[in-house]
Structures are given as C-alpha cells and as structure tokens.
Amino acid sequence: MLSGAPMIDIWIEKYRPKSLDEISGQAEIVEKLKAFVRAREIPHLIFAGPAGTGKTSAALALAAELFGEDWKMSFLELNASNERGIDVIREQVKDFARIRPSNSLGFKIIFMDEADQLTSEAQAALRRTMEMYSETTRFIFSCNYSSQIIPPIQSRTVVLRFRPLSKEDVVKRLKYIAEQEKVDLSDDSAEAIYEASEGDMRKALNIFQAVASSGNTSPSRIFEMVGKTSRKEYEKLLRISLEGLFEDARNELDRMLIQQGMSGIDIIRGLHSAVRSSQIEPRKKAEVIMALGEAEFRIVEGGSDNIQLDALIARLSYIGGRLS
Membrane spanning segments where (predicted)? Predict the structure, then answer.
C-alpha cells in the first residue's frame, strides 16, 4: 500500500454484529444462545446453514457475551477449508484444548468454521479430542450441511439451523448502513441488492459497498455489477416463451448472453427462480421445471449454451401451447 493512502474499511467487518442483539434475523437461534449466556454454560454446537446467514457472527458474539472483554483468550477460531487435515487436530486443537481456561466459567470455545470440509480422519480425531477435554473445552462447528459431519460428532452436539435472511431483514440492515455511511439507497435499490444476494447478508454488504464506491446505486448498476438481471426480465422471458413468441424470446436471450455476458446456467437458474414464484398453474409449472432441469444437465455435460437455450424456449413454447 502506498504511504499515506487512505485505509478502506470492509463493511462486512465494520458492521459485523458485536452482540447477539445485533444479529439480523435468526430470532429463535438468538434466543437459545441468550439462554446459554444466562446459564453461563453451553453444550457443543453445530451451526448449519447457507453462507452469509450469521453463523460466524453468532459464534463471535456468543463468546464475547460469555467471556467479556478478554474473550479472545478463551476462543480459538480455525477455518477447516484451509486447515482440514488430521495434523491440525493433533497440533493446534489439542494444544489449545489442553491449556486450562483462565476465565471464571471453567471452559473455552474452539470454533471450527466450514467444518464440513474436514476429512473423515480429522473428524474422527476431533471426536476423541472432544471426549478427552469435555470438561474444559466446548466446540462450535459451522457448516453448510450438517450431514457432512460424522454421526459421532452430531450425537454430541446441539444443531442450530440458520436460514437465508428475509428481504425485510436484509433491507433493514442495508438502510441502517446507508444512513451510517451517508449513502443514498432507494427502496428499489435495496430490493435489487437483496435479490442479487439471495438472503446472503455478507454478499449483500459486499455488493452495496461496491456500488456505493462507484457512486451509482441504481438497480440497473447493481445487476450489472453482479452479472445478473432482474427478476422482472426473467419473468418476461418466461412469459413470452410460454406464449410461443420464439423470436422475441430468442432476442431476449441474445441480449442476456451478449450484452450482459451471462452464462446459460445463470439464465436457467434465473428462470427457475422466476417460475417457482410465479402463479403458473401447477401442471404447467412442473413441466417447465423439468425442462429447465434437462437444459441445465445438458449444458453441465458440455452442451452448447446457445443450442440448449434455443431448445429450452422451443420446449417452453410447446408446453405453453399444449397445456393452455
């Protein structure tokens, strides 16, 4: 970094919740964690759920409220996706676990982020460590899928499932940050960020900071920056395809592929989201989803985006006419 260059705060860290009360959404989980704080004791925990839903923030806030200002002395955070082998368990985890806690609660916390990336051998070693140091160490595992954690560890933990944040929760947080940063953010733009982030608060904040730094927070700029298009455009493509307007639908696809630089998979997933929330009658919706699934499979297997998307809208035209 050049000498004298201004430091840029990363908003996902600057506005990371410092307490359980500051965590957006996840009301039931927050109440359970507050109960642990009141009891001054916690079991081993698994935080399972999609990225950006508050799992790491919840673990940090829980430790801060349990241990107070010196919480970092009683908290070890490891990212299992980077350090996923058995040596990490034998060295770092055991070394930390065997040291007697210096706090008044009598235990420490080891937080394993992305624990579903640990090898099965590392998880087996971790289970033994949990047993040996159960009196002085509590483990919190964060993962996308709790099914990837071996059953012996699952049976020793309480599983808390984090859900994607609602539009209301994301928009409320974005508005708060916009006020703090003195950035104009319209309701349409906030909703566009939510749509692009799909309930991932970390992704939403990264998008917001990126567009705010460009000086243009309009919805069109937001979708352009993330390489997506709005739900309304997917709904339009779906509608005209089902109406049998093949050439119009083909022109829409060309615009998405060429002008916006989208991939065939992006378009199929956007159409999938649009059809799931649409009011299409159930039988037609089922046919459309099957067609989308087949098109995605063929592209993943190496098919041409252009040919498969042409075939998809032709299939949708056939479905719209046959089931109308």
Answer: none
Spans of all domains in the chain: 11-161, 167-226, 231-322
The verdict on whether residue 56 carries a ligand-binding annotation is yes
H/E stretch holding 48 reads: strand 45-48
Which stretches of the chain score pLDDT less than 70?
1-8, 80-90, 322-324
Task: Tell whether residue 64 is among the known ligand binding residues.
Answer: no
Task: Record the pTM.
Answer: 0.77
* Cα–Cα distance, 279 to 108 (Å, whole number): 52
Note the pLDDT of residue 259: 79
pLDDT at 83: 57
**Same fold yes or no, 167-226 and 231-322:** no
Q: Is 49 annotated as a binding residue?
A: yes
* Angle value at C-alpha 37, between 16 and 39, nearest 5 degrees: 170
The answer to whether the annotation marks 129 as part of a ligand binding site is: no
Q: Which amino acid, one-letter code, is at 42?
A: I
pLDDT given for residue 96 in this prediction: 83
Q: Which fold has domain 231-322?
A: Zinc Finger, Delta Prime; domain 3 (1.20.272)
pLDDT score for 99: 81
Q: Please provide residue 170's backbone torsions phi and psi, each rounded to the nearest 5 degrees.
A: -65, -45
Determine the pLDDT at residue 1.
43
Run of H or E residues at 63: helix 55-67
Is 51 part of any known ligand binding site?
yes
167-226: what fold? Helicase, Ruva Protein; domain 3 (1.10.8)
